[in-house]
Amino acid sequence: MYRINIFLIAVLAALASCAPARFVEPLKKGQQVITGNFGGPVAKIPGIGAIPIPFTAVGYGYGVTNKTTIFGNLHTTSLAFGIGQTDLGISQSIWKNDKMGVSAQGTMNIFVDFYTGANRFWPQLDANYYLKYGKHSKPVQLDAMCKIESKHYNFFYAGLSNWFDPYKTESQGRPNAQFWIPSVQLGHQWIRPKWSYQAELKMLAPNQSNQNIVVNYPSMLNNRGALGLYFGITYHLK
To answer: What is the pTM of this model?
Structure first.
């Protein structure tokens, strides 16, 4: 079966992180969720047109405190090609009030090629500002004995994602000239009692050339970077 080895995955990862922003607003203390996301860099596919590369991942998040959330995700598309890809991280509230907030996310991206045993690790640091609107509360019956006030609201967010590549060489032994790979993100989340939803647009790696690589990436910056489009869904366990 055709598979992508870790070095081709690394080329895609080097262009940008293949996932939307994680927990822009940290969870409440004790809150647990299951997450899923779909999408990636928009690529021009012959005979089809420009579509997001269908990267997928499933994950889990837990609110350690009202300001701190830990999370982990398994990238299922990579897994189908024999690559173990995970991202493990923490989201921390920096400042917030009832209408807006600022948060930071630190993540370790881990890649392991199950066929060769090769592995790589990429740290990532994000910062996001979010603005809430449409907030209101309504009672939700969890069970016969427990009723809570659950809030419906939405928020826009904007942020900067920073992917760091500490390796001296890229695939085929080429020197690594891109230690820092930034991306700019704009997104929206719809928060509901049980199911929440996310849509995000990214300007991926605007400091990197998208010429002479395997995939044709359209961009708003001519020959630099790529557009990314992502969708996410969250199920609230608690």
So the answer is: 0.85
State how far the Cα of 180 lies from the Cα of 22, in Å rounded to an integer. Answer: 20
The domain of 227 spans 6-236
68 class by beta-carbon count within 10 Å (0-12 exposed, 13-18 middle, 19+ buried): middle
How far are the Cα atoms of 67, 116, 180, 203 from residue 111, in angstroms, in the given order? 29, 12, 18, 23
Query: Cα–Cα–Cα angle for 149, 151, 155, nearest 5°?
Result: 165
- pLDDT for res 155: 97
Within a domain: residue 201? Answer: yes
- Position 78 in a domain: yes
Q: What is the DSSP letter of 15?
A: H
pLDDT in tens, 84-134: 899 999 999 999 998 999 999 999 999 888 888 888 899 999 999 999 998
Q: How far apart are CA 191 and CA 142, in angstroms?
A: 17
DSSP 173: G
Instruction: Count structural domains, the chain.
Output: 1
1 assigned to some structural domain: no
